[in-house]
Amino acid sequence: MYAVEAKYAEAADTLGKLIGTHGHTLIWGGSDSGLMKTIAGAVQKNGGKLIGVTMERIRDTARKSADELIITKDLNERKTLMRERADVFVLLPGGIGSLDEITEILELKKHGLHDKQIVILNTNDFYGDFRLQLERMGREGFIARPLQEYLHFAATPEEAFDFLNER
Predict the structure, then answer these.
(1) Per the confidence metrics, is the pTM higher than 0.85?
(2) Contacts for 126-134 with beta carbons within 8 Å, 24 or more apart?
(3) CB-CB contact of 143 with 133 (8 Å)
(4) By C-alpha distance, which of 130, 163, 120, 157 is closest to 39?
(5) For 141, phi and psi rounded to 5 degrees?
(6) What share of the chain is helix, strand, coil (3-state, %, to 5)?
(7) Which residues make Cβ contacts (< 8 Å) with residue 148, sequence separation at least 6?
(8) Which domains does the chain have, with CATH numbers?
(9) What does the pLDDT look like over 106-125, one tens digit per residue?
(10) How far apart are CA 63 and CA 31, in angstroms?
(11) By the 8 A CB rule, do 149 and 167 touch?
(12) Sheet holding 25-28: strands in order across?
């Protein structure tokens, strides 16, 4: 299993508290481990609702206390359901799956297939290099619109939450 540094867990916990105390619903990958466990626990402890979307092959890692748990046949169905049910997208520090999800969401937004807000929670500048790469893509003509038309980078959970509430 992975060992995530406390600063990332603290940010996930803070964001979960904000989601819960404001009465929002978290639609997430359904896992009861890592940062997904942290944010889900904070949402629940603070009165928010949880909708988990996981795959059949990893259903044993799912958070059983979710208000709703959806089991999909594969990753594509999982991502589609999460995307359809979400009002906004917030990316926390994560691994390859997180990059897969955010780049797909960005590509779909680029093509006008959704107009939902996208925020990258850039705790400890975790996504600094990703941001630089996106900015380079823009400078060199691979992204047609200014980066800020697609997404917002937030240094803290509070900044992410405030940005979304302003929209």
Answers:
(1) yes
(2) 126/8, 126/93, 127/91, 127/93, 127/153, 130/99
(3) no
(4) 157
(5) 85, 15
(6) 55, 15, 30
(7) none
(8) 6-166 (3.40.50.450)
(9) 999 999 999 999 999 999 99
(10) 6
(11) no
(12) 25-28, 49-55, 68-72
